[in-house]
Structures
1.
Amino acid sequence: MTIETTLPTASLPDQGTFRRVMGRFPTFVTVITTATDTGPAGCTANAVLSLSLSPASILVSLRSASRTLREIRDRGAFAINTLSWEQRALAQRFATGDPARRFDGVAHSWSDGVPVLDGCAATVVCRLRDTVEAFDHTLLIGTAEYADCTPDTPMVLLDGQAHRLPPAEFPSL
């Protein structure tokens, strides 16, 4: 048996409604990092997805006016650092903090000339392959040069709030 319903006449959603609807899509919180002539740079991002396994590649969406985006284009490389639950304070710091001070006191190491945050649930270091401008954002397409993960619980964003997933058995890779 099929029950037909009628939805309201379609209209373009306002920004607040669209933001609220998109907030219902749970996402991992990442910090995108790169190197500059004066040290490491980075910003928070949650629009990150696996693009292909062959070659291993990732797509990241950053605001086109982002300082980090400019630096990634200059350097040609970046890291995606999936924050663990224990690192949840870094999400706000890398989203709104003074860009010149975001790395102050933040433990990190270097991989292929790119800063990688210590203690992340997952990390992928990429070479920049291409960029695509789309509205007020730029899509970065990177090929993976290095990838690793830990059993640490990742931070998940849902409805604008940080959540901790229940522990899961960590699969061996």
2.
Amino acid sequence: MSGMQTSTAQVAVIGVTTVTAYAGLAALQILVLNPLAAAPGSSLGAIYAEMDAAGETMPVTMPLLMLGAGVAAAIAVAVLSIRSRLAPALSALLFLLLLVFGTPGYFVASFGPGMNLADTFMISGGDHSRWSLVLHAVSLGAAAAAVVLALRMRRRPPLAVKA
């Protein structure tokens, strides 16, 4: 890729897309994949009905709001990166950090639904679907990439795009 440079706007589009995909997979994991794995052989409707009958609910709004906050943060980073004319590397570092914080965000967003599943089906409140491992791997990979990028930037700090 010699001779090709990525613009801050391109980094912003990739960053917002990646964070949105992460949040989408997290929502799918919390609301669909994990319940199906927690009660194998049951339909999602039957799982939700059984939760309701047990006096538990599948909280949808709170996890979606929490995951949506990550998407909103990505959009804010994109707008600020472009308006402030941040160097692409610095903008990329900010998006990587958002992805790093995806794992704790996922934990908080999934806690209530996981506990309600646990109370209904007398199981652990942890993840039963392995799709959460994809989220954790992305966050771990983003952490490693952020360290590498930060070390590279330390040699030549790119504070802003030259006009």
